[in-house]
């Protein structure tokens, strides 16, 4: 296929690409950027810093308004990010006051705030992304429920208690000793409590309830307290094709959302560490094109999957911004750490060189991940 025919195919399919991929990607990105920048804005206002601009996007303003405290809220032409501009923010922390600010201006100037206040304002963006993910997941788990495997059987081990009882893959256990059950975790807990005990089990097979009898195989295990105990094993693995949604109350839904967010955080940091040490291939790094593709695919599915995807992206965005790279929030926090150790801010020249290095590094990373995306695309 020639380059001209490829270009023509791209132009012909652009309306579909726009609707199915680009628009969902920009919508998701805008939501995440808004949550991030709102974190900066709220903590800045809390610490009495004057916020001059709250922008979604970069470049020329398309639409905007000014609120009663003088903040310009606007949507800009390039919808690939956003920013909150605070009074005095471009002045180096610890630099000379060439503008000779008045006491009133110093009171609302970002560089003139205490180290702890500046740290809180900068850290608020990434933290807002992580909190936003927790709120999304908690709401999802409370309203729609948490995906949980039914007590379905995917694999039956040969010569196991389940095999001897006549269970087969595809069965779903619906009752144990007269007690109705729904979830695989209920099956596991009840069987573990019956080592070597004759157990009446009812399975659902082809729409028919079939009574069976099994004797869970006893096995010695060491508990969390270090004590040895005996548990029962049925010899089955759950069926991933059999699952449903279990609704949680607000408290347990929030706790589960925190657990998943924590697990996602550790998984991302572990993956980054393995890439840095060479244990994982750098081809796994994805950029905006891959995210756009995934956004389009998820947007065409269920709303549950879309919410979960947005939550995971929000966690990733928060963590990326915490990396100690100048120009990112983590780079500013690294400078503040140096300030706390030295007892005074880094000099303006050191900060300038740091930001230049950060810019070069970010441009290199963007080119690299975009190349990965194009190769995979």
Which keywords apply here?
377 residues; alpha+beta; Pdz3 Domain; 4-stranded antiparallel β-sheet; two-stranded antiparallel ribbon; 12 strands; elongated
Structural commentary:
The chain has 10 helices and 12 strands. By secondary structure, the protein is of the alpha+beta class. It folds into 2 domains: 17-145 and 250-376, no CATH class; 148-246, Roll (Pdz3 Domain), CATH 2.30.42. The longest helix is centred in the first third of the chain and has 44 residues, at 3-46. It is elongated. It starts with a helix and ends with a helix.
- What is the total number of structural domains? 2
The whole-number mean of residue pLDDT values reads 83
What series of H and E elements makes up the topology? HEEHHEEHEEHEEEEEEHHHHH
CA radius of gyration is 28 Å
Low-confidence stretches: none
Gap between N and C termini, in Å? 16 Å
Dominant shape = elongated
Q: How many strand units?
A: 12
| Percent range for β-strand residues | 15-25%
Numbering strands along the chain, what is their spatial order in the largest sheet? 6-5-7-8
Question: Quick recap of the structure?
Answer:
With 377 residues, the chain is α+β, with helices and mostly antiparallel strands. It has two domains: 17-145 and 250-376, no CATH class; 148-246, PDZ domain (Pdz3 Domain, Roll), CATH 2.30.42.
Q: What is the secondary structure topology, with strand pairs?
A:
Elements: H1 3-46, E1 51-66, E2 72-86, H2 103-107, H3 115-143, E3 146-149, E4 153-156, H4 161-165, E5 172-176, E6 179-180, H5 184-192, E7 199-205, E8 208-214, E9 217-222, E10 228-233, E11 236-238, E12 243-246, H6 250-276, H7 288-299, H8 303-321, H9 329-342, H10 348-376
Antiparallel strand pairs: 1-2, 3-12, 4-11, 5-6, 5-7, 7-8, 9-10
